Amino acid sequence: MASDSKAWSAFSIVATLAAVAAAKKVTDVAWRAATGKNPPINPADPDVDTTEAVLWAAFSGTAVGLVRMTVQRKAALYYQRSTGHLPGQLQADGK
């Protein structure tokens, strides 16, 4: 069972990292299309307008969170189809 847990962890991490990288590119392009400007490199920088920093944080955070959740759900379904069970961390009874 420990090897299942390690396999799931590795699979989940790789899928999530790939999805987050793709989401970042998509959010950057969407931000440029909507505002005509590049997204803030560091929203915490005092030179970045507060409204722009807040909007970017909300937009990018929501997009990355949704993509991450979706990819993890798809990865769990793939894992379940491949092994016949959900990873231990996702099973309702925690086994």
UniProtKB/TrEMBL annotation:
InterPro entries: DUF4235 (IPR025329). It holds the Pfam family DUF4235. Keywords: Signal. Residues 1-21 form the signal peptide. It comes from the Bacteria. This is DUF4235 domain-containing protein. It comes from Nocardioides caricicola.
